[in-house]
Amino acid sequence: MRILIADDNEVVRCAMRALLETQSGWTVCGEAADGRDAIEKAIELRPELVLVDVSMPGSSGVEAAKSIREKLPQCEILLVAEHDASVMIQMVALAGAGGFVLKSRMAHDLIPAVKAAKHATA
Question: Which end of the chain has the lower number of beta carbons within 10 A, N or C?
Fold first, then answer.
């Protein structure tokens, strides 16, 4: 599975990459530091999954996710944020995303969330 990571924090991107690349068959095909870059790279790289930080400069993660969903409807999207779960449920609906991962739970929830998204599109 090809994955694009979009987060304005380089440390967070590196941590997500490290977690994701522990899984056989998963490849981080690119990284983006803002919403506009996420949209451009998604169109260019055509990943199967995009992890999008909700709070990014340039274009909010929700706006970037909506745009990616419109341009690449087959691509699964997971939002990533520091917000609490009740706020994230609303953002997921607005963005047309398949789910979310809280940054505070990244080490525990990222791999299961990606696996669930992968199965949803299979």
Answer: C
